[in-house]
Design a protein that fits this description.
This protein is of the alpha+beta class and about 675 residues long. It contains 15 helices and 19 strands. Strands 3, 4, 5, 6, 7, 8, 9, 10, 11 and 12 form a ten-stranded antiparallel β-sheet that branches. It has a seven-stranded antiparallel β-sheet with strand order 16-15-14-13-19-18-17. Strands 1-2 form a two-stranded antiparallel ribbon. The two termini are about 40 Å apart. This is Fungal N-terminal domain-containing protein.
Length: about 675
């Protein structure tokens, strides 16, 4: 049994984050048990992310690869059990949550919440596929989080014996959680007991001690800068005692843990990831954008924290019952700082105040003329988003676009950085036409820089489908590869633009893979089910002559993305053609009864796909793609009938085969998939 890859674990972590957001929908009306489950889901997502980062950091000499087969199989059993629980909970939230639309002063808002039936009968309903209640679900998530933390700490210890002593006994019991024959309560208690025993005898990795004379540079030598940066920038795994292990082992030091430690972007509305999406990727006459979107109320876009309500000046002298720590959660593993090399100033308070005043004056002097204040930004967003719905609102780390350097050579371009850390929003807005006699719907991609100097808008042409391009090397980078105009707005919306830029390629780099997936969902109008990296895709021919035909490479080092259309329940595979072959995308159904495909495992990392009917005729129904015209007599030279795909890893190939097998259990009559190039 193969151990899940780093990418699989990260995808599972992102799914857990999304479930956590959906679980907290309608927070004002949910019971306290829902909040407890939500906290456990966030803890599990955080633990999975740290485990993936630990495996990635040791990818060159992985401890898990050096372990024996029994230990590897045990790790796979533990992670597959966790994946099964998360997937079951994902299906449950989709089944029992409802989407409500209500009008607001600026348009309408979409709200996702639990159904009245769930809120009334949540104590008696089944929350797990094994028949457990909500307390059993809470215990199950707690066990998964604890086991993931134990595996991560064992990997960081670099000890094969410790890794085996942790994984083998846990794997022998964790699989019984899903055993329908036994009692779920007894299985959970027994698994909980074993995990508690292992946690009690598992030592914490101590912080490295440094001599007092060691300079600060030597203390931090060999550690990346992310270890001393704010928590939201930390991507290096650290040994953190989990809240679950604290409850299991009384010797464990209590360290506060919060889901927000691993992310800083403002919470995305659960409605932006709702599965009720409408699409029009050349399938029938479906619409393009999601009907589930966030509210356009500009008051929700403010990121300023509200002031505390407790202004009581009295200080109690009674002993506090709650220990408060002002250290960062990862401070337990940071090296001790040496004493200062120079004496402290006699009046540090006055010096610090004067330095703050001087620094503030310098920053005001260097303020860009395009910068806006908080109130100006709120007014701008209120005007720009009037009568609008925010379909996607996520955090980005970089936005850049290409610009021609020579008017004579179209290929002579340079990459221009628009802004760094920013907010990226996809907005659907109603606007009157030029003659003011009717109303049109306009979709735009907005970018707001954190320093309030850039307000960039990409207005998407109505009727065109913008197929986002995903980077093979960077899953957080999504590109729009069509000719368009970028508008840079001034301080006031509706006034004269500061500048415009013509480009044919825009890169949006997001803070995490989940934000990139949400962005792609809204551009495509479909739900992204999975992404697999492929090394190359070769075109093959049917029949005896095909065995001797030249194998032409169609794609190289591209992502194979699987999309689901909720209108037709169609599942579509999409991969970008290489430039030397042709422009556009190779697209085909996975679950069409009219044009069924056959997928065969060729061994290694390769699969062979037969039964394709992909036309290569040119058309013009959408940008970055074309429409194959139906011919009376099919020319085999102009139709792709088969392909051989080599994946980047065997794990990704196995994931694709499992997905195809699951999807093809129910074949559907689907409309023609028109055009791919």
């Amino acid at each position: 049994m193969a151990v899940p890859s780093v990418g699989d674990i990260l995808m599972l972590s992102q799914l857990a984050w999304r479930i956590g957001r959906a679980f907290s929908a309608g927070r004002t009306s949910v019971p306290a048990e829902f909040t407890e489950v939500e906290t456990e889901i966030y803890n599990l997502a955080k633990a999975l992310k740290l485990l993936a980062e630990t495996l990635f950091a040791d990818s060159d000499d992985s401890l898990i690869s050096q372990a024996d087969k029994g230990t590897q199989d045990g790790a796979a059993i533990i992670l597959n059990s966790c994946q099964r629980t998360v997937n079951d909970l994902d299906s449950l939230t989709d089944q029992y949550q409802v989407i409500k639309k209500h009008r607001t002063a600026d348009g309408f808002a979409i709200e996702r919440s639990w159904s009245d039936l769930v809120l009334a009968q949540y104590k008696s309903m089944m929350w797990t596929t094994e028949g457990g209640n909500i307390q059993n679900l809470h215990s199950m998530l707690q066990i998964h989080t604890s086991t993931v933390h134990l595996i991560m700490q064992a990997l960081q210890s670099k000890s094969l014996s410790r890794l085996e002593s942790v994984i083998v006994p846990i794997a022998g019991k964790v699989d019984t959680i899903h055993d329908r024959a036994g009692s779920l309560n007894e299985n959970l208690k027994e698994t909980h007991r074993i995990v508690r025993e292992i946690a009690s005898r598992t030592p914490q990795l101590p912080a490295p001690s440094l001599p007092e004379s060691a300079p600060l540079s030597s203390a931090l030598k060999g550690q990346p800068a992310k270890d001393i940066s704010p928590p939201h920038q930390s991507s290096k795994p650290t040994v953190l005692p989990s809240p679950q292990l604290q409850s299991l082992s009384p010797s464990t030091t209590a360290v506060p843990s919060s889901p927000s430690d691993t992310t800083t972007h403002r919470p995305i509305s659960p409605t932006s990831v709702a599965r009720k999406r409408i699409s029009e990727f050349s399938c029938g006459g479906s619409s393009r954008y999601s009907s589930s979107c966030a509210s356009s109320d500009t008051t929700t876009s403010s990121d300023w924290p509200s002031p505390t309500q407790d202004r009581t000046p009295h200080v109690s002298r009674q002993p506090s019952q709650k220990e408060v720590s002002f250290s960062r959660p990862d401070s337990a593993v940071l090296p001790l700082l040496p004493p200062p090399a120079i004496d402290l100033p006699l009046r540090p308070v006055e010096n610090s105040r004067s330095s703050l005043r001087s620094r503030g004056r310098d920053e005001i002097i260097r303020l860009h003329r395009s910068s806006t204040t908080g109130s100006q930004r709120a007014v701008f967003e209120k005007q720009a988003f009037r009568n609008a719905a925010i379909l996607c609102d996520v955090r980005g780390s970089l936005v850049e676009y290409t610009q021609k350097t020579s008017p004579d050579d179209p290929h002579d371009v340079e990459m221009v950085e628009a802004c760094g850390s920013c907010r990226i929003a996809v907005v659907r807005k109603r606007e009157p036409t030029e003659d003011r006699k009717s109303v049109r719907m306009m979709t735009s991609i907005w970018v707001f820089a954190d320093d309030n100097t850039i307000r960039m808008q990409l207005e998407m042409a109505e009727g065109d489908v913008y197929v986002p391009y995903s980077s093979y090397f960077n899953p957080e980078k999504i590109s729009v590869t069509v000719a368009c105009d970028l508008r840079f707005h001034g301080i006031e919306y509706g006034r004269r633009l500061e500048k415009t830029a013509k480009t044919g390629w825009i890169n949006y780099v997001f803070e995490d893979g989940q934000a990139a997936a949400l962005f792609q969902n809204e551009l495509m109008g479909r739900t992204l089910l999975a992404t697999y990296r492929t090394e190359k895709t070769m075109r093959i021919h049917e029949g005896l002559s095909g065995a001797f035909a030249y194998a032409e490479q169609m794609c190289g080092m591209e992502n194979l993305r699987i999309w689901e259309d909720n209108d037709t329940a169609a599942v579509i595979a999409l991969i970008h053609f290489s430039a030397h072959f042709r422009n556009g995308y190779l697209a085909f159904y996975l679950n069409s009864s009219g044009t069924p495909i056959r997928v065969k495992d060729e061994g290694g990392r390769e699969v062979k796909i037969k039964g394709l009917r992909v036309p290569l005729e040119k058309g013009a129904l959408r940008k970055d793609s074309a429409v194959g015209s139906a011919a009376i007599k099919e020319d085999k030279k102009k139709v792709i009938s088969g392909a051989r795909i080599e994946f980047a890893s065997e794990v990704e190939k196995r994931g694709f085969l499992d997905l195809v097998k699951s999807v093809q259990r129910k074949m559907l009559e689907l409309p023609d998939l028109l055009g791919v190039n």
